Every structure is written in C-alpha cells, then in structure tokens.
Amino acid sequence: MIATSDWKITRIERSKLQDINLEHLPFGKYFSDHMLEADFIDGAWKNVEIKPYQPLLMEPSMAALHYGQAIFEGVKAYRLQNGKAVIFRPKDNFHRFNVSAARMQMPAVPEAIFMEGMRQLIAIDQSWIPSLHDHSLYIRPFMFSSDHVIGVRPSDTYKFMIILSPTGPYYVAPMRIYVEEKYTRAAPGGVGYAKAAGNYGAAMLATAEARKKGYDQVLWTDAFEHRFVQEIGTMNVFFVMGDKVLTPDLSSGTILAGVTRDSAITMLQDAGHEVVERPVSIDELADAYDRGQLKEVFGTGTAATISLIRELKFKEKVMQFDPENAPVSSQLKQDLAAVKEGLLPDSHGWLFHV
After folding, report:
1. pLDDT tens for each residue of 277-289
2. What phi-psi label fits residue 349: left (phi over 0), alpha (psi between -120 and 50 degrees) or beta?
3. Which class for 20: exposed (0-12), middle (13-18), buried (19 or more C-beta within 10 A)?
4. pTM given for the model
5. Nearest CA among 103, 96, 99, 108 for reference residue 160
6. pLDDT, tens digit, for every residue of 103-118?
7. 175-338 belongs to which CATH class?
8. Alpha-carbon distance 320 to 286, whole Å?
9. Of 3.40.50.620, 3.30.499.10, 2.30.30.40, 3.30.470.10, which CATH number belongs to 4-169?
10. How far is CA 340 from CA 82, 89, 165, 280, 303, in A?
C-alpha cells in the first residue's frame, strides 16, 4: 500500500458550502466538497485519493449491482465548544467495518486508509461541520465489489470510499413503533450483525407497511417465534423496567453491535443504573407495562443518537409512554451530546481529534 504522504489530493476551486444553509438540515441530502476513494486490485489497496465529490463511472455488469457485496458504516464528527473538530469513536467503527467485510467475503480495509483517510478528509472539509446543537457531520465509509463480471463469487476487485454529509437531528419527535410479527430482519447464521447494505433494503417493505398504519418504524422480533425483540428500525433498543435498564444481548448474531449502544450502556452504568443485556420478549414487556414497571423505551444509533419512543403497538395492545417524563433516556441524551460537544469530560477517550 502506498504511504499516506503519497496520497493524491485534489481540492475543489469553489466550495458548495457557499450555497447551503447549515441550519435545519435534512439527513443525508447534502454532501461536502470532497470524498476519499481507494481500490483493491491484485490483492492490495491502491490509488488512495481525496478528490472533489463527483459521480462514479461504472459498467452495468459491476458485481455489487448484481450480488450485493456492499457494506458501510455511520460515524459522526462534531464541533467542540472551543471550535476544534472531533470524530466520535471512529476506531470502533473501523473494527466493525472489517467484521462486516469478513462476513461478506470482502478484504479488510487497513487502519491507515480508514482512520487517516477519514481524518485527512474531514480536515479538508471541516468547515462543513455545523456548530449548532444536535447537528453534526455524518461520515459514510463504504465498500462494494467492483468486478465487471457476472458470476456468483466473491469479487477480485473492490472500491472503498468515504463521503461526508452535514446533518441535523435524524428523528425530530418521539416515535410511534409497530411490533413486527410477519417480516424478519435477521436470523441466526445470517448477516444481522454485519452492516451489510442488503439488510436495509430488506427492511423497507415492513417499514412502509408500518407507516401506512401511522407508525414511524418497526420493532423487529426473532425469526422463529416472533417473540424476542431485536432492533427498532436502524437502532438498537433499550427498556427502562423497574430499577433496571434492559437491552437485547448480542449473542444471537442477529443484532448489530452499535457503537452508540455501547456508549449508552457505559454512560448509564456511570450514572449508577444497572444495565442488563439478555433476551427480552415482547410478552415480558407487555406484562411489565400492565404492572406499571415499563417506564421508558428508547433507541440508540449513530444517525439517531438517542431517540425516545412514545408508543409501542403489539397486536391489539397499545403501550404509551410520556417523553416529557423520561428521566433516564432524557438525561442520557443530554449527557452524550455534552460529551460530543466538549461540555462534559471525555472520560472514556471517545473523541478522536482531527
């Protein structure tokens, strides 16, 4: 692999930022001036380049379009109160990216390309990081197979890229969630733990049907009994039950090991809460709700950060929660944002300085 000092860097002549208002940004609509691109050819990573954001040229036979070898990550950069730019836990995303790559029979991306490439790209485009509260620069590293051959086999060539998108809150209001009992997100032995592109495409039908019923997202349940809860849409899920906080454990291989999930567990424990990771059934949740023990439900994710849930619909049962009286999740949301903005100490070393 070529040294980072030899990477080709081409800068734009005029920034698109002059034409964009960084307030009230929709998620994933605008992209910064530059992108990173690298190629895996003949068993090695080559052609590492930072260049102006632009369309890709590809052939109709490109393998990713036919066989779905594609993975991605979601990371965020923030502007601290002192004006410095930081990335939140990118090394954890780097490790998870290569876990996904291994599951999808794709080559590992070297740390130098993933981490240093991300740092250099954001250093060039750091003016795109919004300074507003609850705003950030969303970072999308992704890789896809790039062989121009139709044939069901792992590709010989791959392309790794990073693009950047300034964004505001992903979910603005507390959500209504439909408990899904027909469709399945993941099964043991599958790719549920990987951040594979196909996982998200396969989830769209169930989500669309839930939205027709007036709900924002689905709470996925297990593939065998549709009894044990897994994830909410693109988020991990937590339940404040009695004096404990429950979240589904990762042992089944059907649930993504969320970086925000791990951050939430750590911060909840720091605040004195007992966090229990174990299988959680929807029947248990319904019973706890009836007994007045299920107090709060919230989701965690890079895009969503901490999202409060105001309603769960399970069969004919509607469980409602008061977002204005959700002390555990509200405090967690506030404290996590404060760490990212430099208002609370980074006691766990989560901030990677650009």
Report:
1. 999 999 999 999 9
2. left
3. middle
4. 0.95
5. 108
6. 999 999 999 999 999 9
7. alpha beta
8. 11
9. 3.30.470.10
10. 12, 10, 17, 30, 14
